[in-house]
Amino acid sequence: MSSALSLSSHFHIRILPSCPSIPSRLRPAALRLLRSTPTGLSLSLHNSERRSSLRTLTIAASGSSPSPAPKMVKAIRVYELGGPEARSERTPIFIFLIPSFSSSFVLKWEDVEIGEPKEGEIRVRNKAIGVNFIDVYHRKGVYVKETPFTPGMEAVGVVTAVGPGLTDRQVGDVVAYAGNPMGSYSEEQVLPASVVVPVPPSIDHKIAASIMLKGMTAYVLLRRCYKVEAGHTVLIHAAAGGVGSLLCQWANALGATVIGTVSTEEKAAQAAEDGCHHVIVYTKEDFVARVNEVTSGNGVNVVYDSVGKDTFQGSLSCLRSRGFMVSFGQSSGRPDAAPLSDLASKSLFLTRPSLMHYTATRDELLAAAGEVFANVAAGILRGRVNHIYPLSDAARAHADLEARKTSGSIVLIIP
Question: In terms of Cα–Cα distance, which of 98, 18, 93 is closest to 59?
């Protein structure tokens, strides 16, 4: 290739007319192509004229001083919002044929460039990545993020590089993080050192990845939003889900009476095993009537509702006077608007918490993670990693999660 390359050399990358602009995802591949020559190259990318009804992207190569090749890793990328189906780009030499964008192809497995950590940063090679419903919200645009982006809010990995000035992190440390910055669906990522916490050596990587974000969420819900104590009665929707499973275990250990809703008999068995005293299969019975029966008409102290639209009004009906409605998800869709007057009949409290607001400082983060890991070590919390997928198969994990085919936690691994 190098013998044929000159200052006037051009390669043409064709893109079908349905693509309105040059996708940024072509740039890493183009860089790798041009930098494969021994002399090094400078690169310019631009649109040129239509040729035979195709829009042509011209890569102009010119001699320059050698530059080090960027470090490339595999990651899941989202260029548009919609359904979870993914496809990998096939990139033959010189010619790239990119199908027109479709909402059917959202989670894409491809090469991305990763830089060196700067001051206050570390680079982490991910070992296990937790899948959470917030990842679905980001992919669908429920929570708006500028595209393109790499999804994922939780991972456990090994530190591979440390930025200047850091003394409390070392290469080889096993660390976990949950929350911002988004981007854990990647083989490696650069993170602020302030957002990671050390993982105790007694805790398996997959367990830690499955429990970090969900466990801290459970901590915030049970100990910060409403402090559950012995004698309280709680209602937990999606009791066999990733967060729901931990809520049942923890609330039971705190001495509360736990009522949970699930969709199947199989999930009911898991919820009961996790400490749920009264399990309601909502596809077979009215959960509001059943809660009223269990509580002898008194209602519950607090409802933890991650379902949203399908359960919101019923959840309010299940509360006792001065009860707390904690809405922390919307897997069935955004709840219909409720007037404040709906709360007045029983002087109810309503909150919509975000984990990030409760772990905003380093001390808060360490306290939350410390509580989770301590409860895991004590056997109070048992991470249920019921589903493991390779990172490249994240689309299938999302599809199964949305179809309610999963229970417990989902973890992506990097073979």
Answer: 93
